[in-house]
Amino acid sequence: MTATAANLSHVLPLGSRVNARGRLEVGGCDLLELAREFGTPAYVVAEDDLRARARAFLDAVSARHRDYDVLFASKAFPCTAVYRLLAEEGLGCDVASGGELFLALRAGFDPARIYLHGNAKSEIELHEAVAAGVGYVVLDSASEIERLERVAAAQRTRQAVLVRVTPGVAGDTHHAISTGQADSKFGFSPHDAEAAIGRVSAAAHLDLVGLHCHIGSQLLELEPFVAAVRTIAALGDFPVYNVGGGLGVAYTDSQQPPAISEYVETLVAVVHRELRTDVRLLFEPGRALVANSTVTIYTVQSVKENVSTWVAVDGGMSDNLRPMLYGSTYEALLAGRPLAPASRRCHVAGKHCESGDVLIRDVPLADPAPGDVLAVPVTGAYGYSLANNYNGVLRAPVIFCREGTARAVVRRESYDDLAARDLE
User: What pTM, to 2 d.p., does this model score?
Assistant: First the structure.
């Protein structure tokens, strides 16, 4: 059995190490000390990991294509401090709601580099986006074309738009995060996209600049991306093409996703081959930017032996819903003895009143005991996003760590927060 820090180095945040006291450090901060200072559960984010991955995307694209932008797919980690850091690194932003737009603007993103997505945008959200001066709206349905035309006309402006095409390409991923198949709630089929392109081109207050496609999330093979570009290339010649995101990451020691440079090289090559070398090319990484930056820490509350060994922690489906939604798999290790060889396979269970509240099954651990701090890597994508208050559990803080200094950028909720929206 392998579950030591040495075996899991490629899923831990960049710069993680075992310190002289034999404990796991993230961003130069001892996880046991963080647990004592900030409590558990907590999302621990290595700032330098976020910055390094943002720079890796920018460097990979700029080395291969002249006219481009890299957009943070912010649904992955819609935290103001994360928005602000990635804006500082020079990224644009993809938002999928009025709330994400609010956060992106509050964090300092240039509205002109914000793209509004979503398959069911309300008229209010469209008004907010146009009034804010967002650069682009990605159109997802025929009725949305009509709504946005009304909104832009009411504000006496022209709004730049892209048409989202569902290319009929399904990557190898969970059905709930597959978006490019023919039977999808997202976008226009290639046939319907032709009609949509005609309608948008005739609209008085919409400026069609290009096409968008996105085929799914947590994809570990590159061929589906190539097939999607080939499909949209047949729909006409446009100045802008947004090839979406979806690049997968390593959640376990056995997963080996394509490198950022390999992913970019593959997509740029097919764009140059099937389209032109002078188009404006957009990428929308989310998970591949933020997932590996973060480790969630928990305190073990009990260890129970029956048919299996059950290790119960003080969080669960309130801070990481992905195992319950998608059957997602994770690794784990004990922060206080990360190099100790695993002695048994355990199920890591949450504290919620559901038998399905199991974070990890059959994970090898080194003699876990109540009071141990358990570290679960690769929780930067969709942990914070999907957090909830089931059983009245307080949502966890977000702790940024860099060069041994830790700071809370999102505080832990209080009981008063649970009632903050009550009217009586």
Answer: 0.94
